[in-house]
Amino acid sequence: MRSFIILLCLIPTLLFARQSQLKTLLEQAIKGKKAEIGIAVIIDGKIQSL
Questions:
Q1: Which of 9, 23, 25, 35 could form a disulfide with 30 if both were Cys (CB 3.0 to 4.6 A apart)?
Q2: What distance in Å separates the CA atoms of residue 12 and residue 24, rounded to the nearest whole number?
């Protein structure tokens, strides 16, 4: 039970680290270019903008 609680406490930290890494990679990809980035997810054949 104790391990489960510790894991729950770590989840937000792990998710933030992933978002930060993705943001850095996307910024590097468009550096020096006239570009905008958008992300969409397709769920059940329908596009969901984020």
A1: 35
A2: 18
Q: What is the mean pLDDT of each run of 10 residues along the chain (50 residues)?
A: 71 67 84 83 77
What are the residue boundaries of the structural domains of the chain, listed by start?
Answer: 2-49
CB-based contact 49:38 (threshold 8 Å): yes
CA distances to 5, 9, 18, 24, 40 from 49, in Å: 33, 29, 20, 21, 4
Q: How far is CA 21 from the centre of its chain?
A: 8
H-helix or E-strand containing 41? strand 40-43
User: Helices in 1-50 by DSSP H: which ranges?
Assistant: 2-30
Q: Is the pTM of this model over 0.90?
A: no
